[in-house]
Amino acid sequence: MKTASGAQLDVGRLALLVLMLGVGWYFWYSPLFWPLKVLVVMMHESGHALATLLVGGSVDRIHLAANESGSCLSQLPPGFLAKVAVYSGGYLGSAVAGAGLLLATFRFQLRRWVLGAACVWLTVMGVFYAGDTFTLAFCLGTALALGLCAKFLPDGAVDVLNLFIAAFTALYAVFDLRDDLWNSAVRSQSDAALLANLTWVPAVVWAALWTLLAVALLAVAAYVSMHAKPKGLQMPSVGARARRV
Predict the structure, then answer these.
(1) CA gyration radius, the chain
(2) What is the distance between the alpha carbons of residues 132 and 41, in angstroms, rounded to a whole number?
């Protein structure tokens, strides 16, 4: 099936994405996926950190925990909009990361550059912002693991790895927002609660809003990434040995 721009649906990519989503959902509580869950928590906290820097604040430190919780301690400039942006940054962080992984891997065929960028991101966050030994060890250890994958895995395996991380990130973002939406105990301690205290808009409304936006963003990214470019516009792959990260 072709779109008006001539891009054609890649049925193989779509089937692989559906498979990855199914595997992630079915084995959600498997301890094998614990590192990925902590990785997505790091994406969430990085969203807070980036929003803080964009509004002119400063990030003191980031904490990750083995129970899949996290926190970003920041100093914010005065102002209503700055606080709304920072409190919302975590919700956007994981959704944007999942969408970016899909687009970078399949629309733009960046493959190893995706893993290389993840290595740089985790190293920077660990060295400059880790607030405890666990956070530092997780960031640097995961950066090393992804770097080795970028260096030694074949192109097809890199694509599968990137797609699985993207699918898992998307699931985590949606499940995280689902808990905020339906679980009042979770919602009362979430970013939605902070937004509610700041704006007087109920936390459940904020959770619903960010759920809809996250799902829409991920759906658009999946749609675009599942449609191949016309042949004349395809970017060259960076998977050749001489250009590996």
Answers:
(1) 18
(2) 15
DSSP letters for the chain: -B-TTS-EE-HHHHHHHHHHHHHHHHTTT-GGGHHHHHHHHHHHHHHHHHHHHHTT-EEEEEEE-TTS-EEEEEEPPS-HHHHHHHHHHHHHHHHHHHHHHHIIIIIS--THHHHHHHHHHHHHHHHHHB-SHHHHHHHHHHHHHHHHHHHHS-HHHHHHHHHHHHHHHHHHHHHHHHHHHH-HHHHTTSHHHHHHHHH-S-HHHHHHHHHHHHHHHHHHHHHHHTEEPPGGGPPPPS-SGGG--
131-183 pLDDT, tens digit each = 999 999 999 999 999 999 999 999 888 888 888 888 888 777 777 666 655 55
- List all residues 6 or more positions away from 32 whose beta carbon is below 8 Å from its beta carbon: none
d(CA 236, CA 28): 35
Q: Are 97 and 43 in contact (CB under 8 A)?
A: yes
Angle at 230 between CA 99 and CA 17, to 5 degrees: 35
Tokens of 194: 């902070």
